[in-house]
Design goal:
This protein is an alpha+beta fold. The chain folds into 2 domains: 3-196, no CATH class; 223-452, 4-Layer Sandwich (Phosphatase 2c, domain 1), CATH 3.60.40. The chain has helices at residues 3-46, 51-73, 79-100, 106-123, 128-148, 153-220, 224-230, 269-288, 295-311, 407-417, 422-437; strands at residues 234-239, 247-254, 257-265, 320-329, 334-340, 344-347, 355-357, 364-365, 376-379, 385-389, 397-398, 403-404, 446-452. Strands 2, 3, 4, 5, 8 and 9 form a 6-stranded antiparallel β-sheet that branches. Strands 1-13-10-6-7 form a 5-stranded antiparallel β-sheet, covered by helices on one side. Strand 11 and strand 12 form a beta hairpin. The protein is rod-shaped.
């Protein structure tokens, strides 16, 4: 813990102690004010011969306590000083009373005041400076009593004085120990609150960074307007697990060909999003810089770029992506496709049965054997539907037995809704996912793209 942190905690601790002291002293003053007046009854019973003079002292004591309470409430003076004045006023008042009353009443008064001291010092928080103050006021009280009183020392101590001195000494010491215990507890609270605040600030910084990363990731994804201009009938169902995603969809037009892909990068959240930036960049460079337009060769080149990028770190990083990538040539009514672990589903026009085109069983990234990706060519007709997706939808846990949705169930769902228009299909996918997921957490990023020719 550095000096700045220690100073901050010390300031907060002092503020907490002062607040506690003020509250206790304020309550004591407002409780003591009526008690001064109630004790007039006690005076009437045990010191009737001096009742009038003692009553005046009681009233002055009540006014003094009320004034101190108001000053504490209005924060006019230092709390420690007011606490000392509260105690000093008490001792001066009872010193005068002991000079007035008869020796026969000493025991009753000493017992009564001892009970008050026990209650007061169970509440007060006494630091070392106040501890010394109270010892001085006690000595002042006894000095006044012994010097001015008409009774000798033995009589005073024998009629309750020694008991009162003992109780006072013990309670002041207990108050001092209570202060040490309270300071320790308060310090723990302050440190806990300070750490909580630091964690909250760090969390806010992380959240802000992630939210900014989200905007950056959204900037590299194709806009809805861009997709709608070239893909007249289709949908993109994109649902990240966290704020940012390891899944992404990619789109570009080159040489009158439309390239579109759904990629599932290693991981999700922030790590997945970072990998997605590397993979997205690799796809763009393959097409734009290296002028590659065959899907399988795009994946081969992207793999080379991704592996080269991660190898610069000098560490063994095997991250990459699974992907389904299409190249539509609407002029020739031909679709060329390649995939890494993720298939392409095709529903020919006039049917509601999915034809699955299997992907190569290795990722776009570092792999234990060097393999080339395979290109598939499909003749397309108006009304044909193609689906590309990551594994997030089929891997989602839910249902009555908390099982995965599975590819088979997803295939059946798409076959059952393929007669709907594409925007309605997207809505049905969303509703099916929410119903299946129920109260379970989303376990992975989800991306599904549907395209109708």
């Amino acid at each position: 813990m550095n000096n700045t942190t220690s100073d901050t905690i010390l300031l907060q601790l002092n503020a907490l102690l002062k607040t506690k002291q003020k509250l206790i002293l304020q309550n004591l003053c407002f409780i003591a004010t009526p008690l001064w007046l109630i004790w007039i009854i006690f005076d009437y019973l045990f010191a009737s011969e001096s009742f009038k003079l003692i009553a005046i002292i009681r009233i002055l004591g009540a006014i003094s306590n009320l004034t101190i309470g108001i000053l504490v409430l209005k924060k006019k003076f230092n709390t420690s000083v007011l606490q000392f004045i509260f105690f000093l006023t008490f001792h001066v008042s009872i010193s005068i009373m002991f000079m007035i009353i008869d020796i026969k009443s000493y025991s009753a008064y000493f017992i009564g005041y001892s009970m008050i001291l026990i209650i007061v010092f169970m509440l007060l928080i006494i630091d070392l400076r106040q501890f010394i103050y109270y010892i001085l006021t006690t000595l002042l009280f006894y000095s006044m009593l012994l010097i001015v009183s008409k009774y000798d020392t033995v009589s005073i101590f024998g009629n309750g004085g020694f008991m009162y001195l003992t109780v006072l000494s013990v309670m002041v010491f207990i108050g001092f120990l209570s202060n040490k215990r309270y300071v320790s507890e308060a310090r723990a609270i302050v440190i806990s609150e300070y750490n909580k605040k630091i964690i909250e600030e760090k969390n806010n910084e992380i959240t802000d960074s992630i939210n900014y990363a989200y905007h950056l990731q959204m900037a590299i994804l194709p806009s809805n307007e861009e997709l709608q201009n070239n893909i007249k009938d289709g949908f993109v169902f994109f649902k990240p697990k966290d704020v940012v995603s390891g899944d992404f969809y990619w789109y570009i037009v080159k040489n009158e060909k439309i390239f579109i892909a759904v990629a599932d990068c290693t991981g999700h959240g922030v790590p997945g999003a970072i990998v997605s930036v590397v993979c997205n960049n690799a796809l763009n460079r393959s097409v734009q810089e290296h002028n590659i337009i065959s899907p399988n060769l795009i994946l081969d080149k992207s793999k080379e770029i991704i592996v080269e990028t991660f190898e610069r770190s000098g560490k063994n990083i095997n991250d990459g992506m699974d992907i389904s990538i299409c190249c539509f040539s609407l002029k020739d009514n031909i679709l060329k496709w390649a995939g890494a672990n993720n298939p392409l589903w095709h529903i020919p026009n006039g049917t509601n049965n999915i034809v699955s085109i299997q992907a190569d069983k290795f990722p776009v990234g570092k792999y234990f054997t060097e393999k080339k990706f395979t290109e598939h060519t499909i003749n397309i007709n108006k009304g044909d539907i193609f689906y590309m997706f990551s594994d997030g939808f089929s891997d989602q846990f839910g249902g009555p037995n908390r099982k995965k949705f599975m590819s088979k169930r997803l295939k059946q769902l798409l076959e059952s809704i393929c007669h709907l228009n594409m925007s309605e299909q997207k809505e049905e996918l969303y509703n099916a996912l929410i119903k299946w997921q129920g109260n379970n957490k989303q376990i992975d990023d989800i991306c599904v793209i549907g395209i109708k020719i």
